Amino acid sequence: MATIQEVAKLAKVGVATVSRVINKTGYVKEETRERIEAAIKELNYTPNAVARNLYRNKSGVIAVIVPEIDHPFFSEFVNELEEICAEHKYKIMLCNTWFKENYEHQYLAMLKEKLVDGVVVASHSLDIEEYAAIDRPIVALDRQLGNGIPCVRSDHEVGGRLAAEELLRAGCKKVVQFRAEENKSAPFIVRHDTFENVLRENGIELENIYTKWNYLSYEYNQKLCQDFFRDHPDIDGVFATDIIAMNIEIEALKSGMRIPEDVRIVSYDGTGIIKLSYPSITVIEQPVKELAAKCFQHLESQIEGEKPTQSMITLPVKLIKGMSTNI
User: Fold this and answer.
1) What is the C-alpha to C-alpha distance for residues 293 and 296, in angstroms, rounded to an integer?
2) pLDDT digits (tens, 9 = 90+) for 22-40
3) Is the pLDDT of residue 147 over 90?
C-alpha cells in the first residue's frame, strides 16, 4: 500500500504540499496539484481517513437517532440523509433506539466524546433538558429541543387542514382520527388539533383513537385496525398515517365495504408503501428528501463552527388525491 511519502517523492514535492492537496487546504499551484493528483492515481494511493480526520479535528461521521428503522417514514428519511452525507464526504452511524432511553444515552455520550461530529435526532425517548445541556452540533427532526437546537419539520398545521377539507369535500359525516398521545415537544401534534378543529367547526362528528407513544411496529398497527369496523360500523371517514391507513383499507375490503362509497381514507406521510394500496389512498405527503437536506444543511453549518440562526425550519406538505376520496 502506497504512503503519502511515496506520493511526495514521485511528485517531487514535500509531504506538506501533498497534504494540502488531499485536505483541500492552502494554496498549491495548478501545475503542482496536477502532478500530485497524477502521482496519487499512479500509486493508487488512498489517504488515511483516521489521520485526515484527526488533522481536521473531525470524525467524518454523523449519528442519526431514530426510534425504529423498520418504520417506512424513518427508513426513507435515513436513506435520503445518507445519500446527502455521502455527497459531502460524511458517513452516517445509524442509531436505532427501539424506544430505549439507555440506547439514546449511549449515542449522546459518543457526541460528547467527539466520536461523531454531530447528531440528527428523530426519536423522543429522552427529556429535552438532556439535549439542551450538550453544547455540540445537534439538529432535531420534528421535535423541539430548545432554542439552541434547530428543529426541521413539515407544515403539519396545513397538513391537518388539507386532510380535513378533503374529507369534508368527500361528504364525510362521521370521522375517526388516529392520533398519537400528547407530547408538547412534537410539532406534528398540531396536525391532529387542526384536523379536529376544522371538522368540528363544520359540524362533523369526530372520534379520536389514541395510539401508544412510540409504538410504530407493523404488528401493533395491524392489531389496532383488525376490529375497527366491528367497533365503528357507521364510520365513513378515516385520517391516519400510512401504515394504519393501509391496514384500515385492508380491513374495510375484508368486511365487504366499498372504497370510497362506504368509507373514505386520507393518509399522512406519503411514503413509498402507500403507493402499494389499491384502491389508491389519498395522502398528505411530507417532503422527506427536503427534510433530510435541511437537517444536513443546518447540522453541517454547526460542525463548521456557525451558531444556529433558525430555531424552526418548516417545509410545505402537499395533497395527492387517490381513489379513496374520489366521490
Assistant:
1) 5
2) 877 778 889 999 999 999 8
3) no
Instruction: Transcribe 190-212 into DSSP letters.
Output: HHHHHHHHHHHHTT-EEEEEEEP
Residue type present at position 1: M
Closest by Cα among 166, 82, 170 to 120: 82
C-alpha cell at 312: 424552526
Q: What is the pTM of this model?
A: 0.80
Instruction: Count CB neighbours of 252 within 10 A.
Output: 22
Using CA atoms, how far residue 197 sits from 7, 214, 224, in Å, is 68, 25, 24
Structural domains of the chain, ranges and CATH numbers in brackets:
4-56 (1.10.260.40), 61-154+289-314 (3.40.50.2300), 156-287+319-325 (3.40.50.2300)
Nearest to 84 by CA among 269, 315, 295: 295
Q: Residue 279: CB partners within 8 Å, gap ≥ 6?
A: 249, 259, 260, 322, 323, 324
Q: Dump pLDDT digits (tens) for 82-122.
A: 999 999 989 998 888 765 556 677 767 766 676 789 989 98
